[in-house]
Prior knowledge:
single chain; alpha/beta; three-stranded mixed beta sheet
Amino acid sequence: MNQQQQGASPRDKTVALVLGSGGARGYAHIGVIEELEARGYRVVAISGCSMGALVGGVYAAGQLAAYRDWVCQLDYFDVLRLVDVTWSPMGAMRANKVMSKLESLIDDTRIEDLDIAVTTVATDLTRQREVWFQSGSLLEAIRASIAVPGVITPVHCGDQVLVDGGLLNPLPIIPTVSARADFVMAVNVTAHSPRPVSLEELLPPDEAAEEKAREEARDAGGVDFASWIDGVRGAARRLFDGLSNGNANGNGGALPPAANKKGQVDEALERDRREWGRLDMVLASFDITQAALAKYKVAGYPPDVLIEVPKTVCGAYEFHRAEALISLGRHLAVDALDRFEGLTHPGWGDQAIVVEPTGEETDEEPDVGPVEEADQGTGEEAGEESGEEKAPS
Length: 393
């Protein structure tokens, strides 16, 4: 960045935004975008993966306010009702209910028609490569990017099996390096931290107290998720044992009718807990891998501003905590942008986990060679080799 750009006021500046994967922690992206808009920055490019693709796509379509209102109204039971368990061996859950809501917001919007350049990233299991969606159906691109392997069923597109882009690139910085923006801001919501950090620790005291009260109220309500968990556990068992074993009792994963003795019931419940524990392990492993991969992406292409949300602030599927996570994103953005603009922030921002790249800046064009190893595709023709002429959408 040159001196002229450094001296420009925020309202004269454009930003390329990189929004990483991380499940519910991706709600923090909303807060970051809100702070950028409040300061007059103009987002000209977005690259997103998984939850980052969802938030970025909805924002580019002009529906972020409506999406924010919806997620902030979700309580724990609403989130559970959105989870549609499936018996497919390729995933424990579908995303039909969530996608129906998104369809009501963005309809049949196409990526190339958006005012903001958008790239969503998925992973092709067949070819073991990234797939970039830069044109075609925005809804289909988001659905492919959020398909967490083994949890949400994949998207089949021709001979491609598309899953969460976080499998290979949880923080897709590379698509933004050619953007005509004054600076690049990346938001990593799967960051490692020296010690486990809670959401309440990073919020201002008054907001932390409110969030703690909400959590305590829910716990005191004696919420019982047994029936829902039983269904997910049954799906998890099929995921690991296969449909043939899962259907051995012909009862959809439930206890056999004859299992009315205490010993049989206990044995079946213990088996369910064991299978659910395996799924938990898959999710935790995926989270850890994404955090490590994000570090490499940042090292290879350091953004001008990096905001990091520790992966310990909440579970990847705590989607009922939207309000607090959005607030966290905005507070971290305040701290990061104050530092970037050379301002001093007298508040609580010294607790924020923000990493700013070190080293000399250069006006030289970055090496974009790795782009050629990713696929740039449309919603229908995803998978074309980078550098080849694209077929008309």
